[in-house]
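Lab notebook, bench 4. We co-purified these components, and the gel suggests they stay together. Before we commit to crystallization screens, I want a quick structural picture of the whole thing.
Request: model the full complex, all chains together.
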Amino acid sequence: VAEQVIASQLIAAEQVSDDALERIVREHARLVYRVAYSVVRNHHDAEDVTQETFLRVLRSRKKLDAVHDVKPWLARIAWRIAVDRTRKKPQVGLGEIDQDVDGLRARSLTEESLLAAEMSGLLGRMIAVLPSQLKDVITLSTVQELSPAEIGEVLGIPESAVRSRQFRARQILKDKMASLLEGKHERNG
Amino acid sequence: MNAMDKDRSLDAVLDRALAACGDAEPRVGLENRILASLRDEDHRVARARRRFLVVGSAAAAAVLATTLWIVVSGTSPPNRRTTAARVSPAVAVTTPQDRKSERSIRTNQIRRHERSHPKSSTEGDGLPKLREFPSPRPLSGQEKLLLAYISAAPDSEIKAAAAEQASHASDLQINELQIAPLAGDQNAYETSTNK
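Here is the predicted assembly.
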């Protein structure tokens, strides 16, 4: 009888954690996907990372009760998986970025949307070659759902450090973009 | 355009570009796909757990059966007290009481061993160890009486008895058989001889 009671309690607990897990998936799948995408820059890989994140959550669902804030916890798991995945791929060199900038200057871009798409791709490559401390912060700051405090929780650093690194990263990116835009103005003039 | 305006416009461009970078929308049905894969994983884990339980219980049953078989077949592990008695005598100071208790322990061991390993009925029959065969046995009552008679009786009587015994032992003499013909046959015989 005691075994049956324990078994029924376990089944009930598992049912509760299943329900909690489903709720978490429905609420946070998009956030996890965006965190993954911010790192891997690829829809297919981002979905794989999202699946892997929730599989890890499933394996440690008994710890769900101990997690006080699910959002940064999930973002942290997704971040680690995505970073591990990108480590296996070859890194982009600074020389390639300069070639991209030159190529963008040479083209006659009339449509703003095309320019924005090109800029977005170029920005991704610029971010990829930033120093890792700055790169991590600026990458996570592209995910709109995450506040600086939550980014700090994901990376394990204080919020003030997040803000200062974000500022420095933006400065570097702005310098690069200024050179790009100056080239475009000169070409149009 | 002064430097501040330029910086602001660059900020705006950068914000737009960063927003575009992070503005990734997953394909429709992402949540359902994730939940389906979680259910698959859950079932896979449950199957693996069931298989582990079955294999584990089978192994435990095999171990239990082996243990029972060993216990039943009588190969019990050595007694701890016996082991201590075997190991320590070189070191221990032996008093008369100790010696007595040791002797009783050994006796008990031997008895226990004999009880657990009874001698089979065929043990010792394998090799002919006796010098005489058949083995000497005590005389029966009749043999004793015969010996008493021989020692008390006179020689003449013994000789007569021996002669009688010898006559019994000699070959039987059987006379030659003579068969007389029957009456009817007698007449026929006579006529044929007369002719």
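Chain B has a mean pLDDT of 77. Worth comparing against the SEC data before the next meeting. Residues 33 and 115 of chain B are 72 Å apart (CA to CA).
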